[in-house]
Amino acid sequence: MVDIPTVVLDRLAFIEANYQYELIALSGRPPQCLLLLGHESPDKNCLLSRCVNIPLSLKPVAASCTSFEYDINQVNRRIELTECTNPGLKPLGIMVLNETLYDYSPTLQRLMTQVDGLRYLFTYDPLQESSLSCHSVELDSHRLTLNRVHHELRDSSSNMDLGFREAAQDEAASEQEFTIKLAGKINRIIQYLRHSNDIDPKVLRSVSLLVSQLRRHPTDDIEEEIMNKESEISAFRTACEQWEIGTCFLRNKPVD
Q1: CA–CA dist 158, 83 (Å, integer)
Q2: Helix H segments across the chain?
Q3: In angstroms, rounded to a whole number, what is the distance separating the alpha carbons of residues 61 and 101?
Q4: pLDDT tier at 1 (50, 70, 90 boundaries)?
Q5: Mean of the pLDDT values across residues 19-41?
Q6: Parallel, antiparallel, or unpaired for β 151-154 and 7-10?
Q7: Distance from the CA of 198 to the CA of which of 24, 67, 151, 182 falls in 20 to 30 A?
Q8: So what CATH class is 7-160?
Q9: Domain extents for the chain?
Q10: CA distances from 25 to 18, 98, 125 (A)
C-alpha cells in the first residue's frame, strides 16, 4: 500500500494570502498568484508556512486573449529574502485565486520551469473559504497534470506528527537552553546588585521581573502576542513589497 503524503497549509499563511488579496481587491475580482514555501519531511509530508506574492500584469496576446507577465528576478529576490529570514524553507507550491475567471496555465508552466521544487497547486475563491483545494502538479511535455490530494488547514504549532517533530523539538530545546543561560547570567547580576551600595530599587525590581518572565512557561497570552507580532511582520513585509514595486516603477518610468 502506497502512503499518501499529507499536505498542511499553515493558517497564518492562508490569512496572509487573504490579506494580500484584500490589498488589490478594491473593486472586482482581480487575479492573484502566490508562491508557498515550507518544509518537506523524508516521507514527503509537506508543511507550507509562508507565502510570497507574485505581482502579475496583463499582456495582450491576441484580440481576444491575454496572458500574465511577472518579473522572475523580483520573484527570486523575494524567495531569497524569505529563505534568509526563515532558514530551511523552500518553494513547494503555488496558490492561485479566482481560477474560474482566469487562465493561469501559461503562468504556472513558466513558474514550474523557473522555480525548482514546485509540486502542489492550491486554488481558492476568496468569496468562499470552503473552496480551498489542493492538487499535486507535474509538468510533462509542456502540459500540466493535476491530481487532487488531501490537504489540511491548521495551525503549524498544533500537535501533529508529519516528520517535523524532531526538528521542532531540537529548535525548542535550543531556545530553552539559551533562555536558561540568559536567566542565569541576569540572576548573577541581581546578586551583585544586592550586595552593592546606592542601587536604585527600581533597577533591581526590573531585572528581577525580567528573570521571572524568562523562566515562565509559554501561556496563551504569550502565544497570542507572538501571533500578533507575526501579523505585524507580515504587514511590514507587504509594505516593503509595495515600496519595491513603486521603486521599480519609478526607475523604469520613461523620462519626458
Answers
A1: 23
A2: 11-24, 72-85, 105-114, 165-194, 201-215, 220-252
A3: 17
A4: very low
A5: 87
A6: parallel
A7: 182
A8: alpha beta
A9: 7-160, 165-217
A10: 10, 11, 12
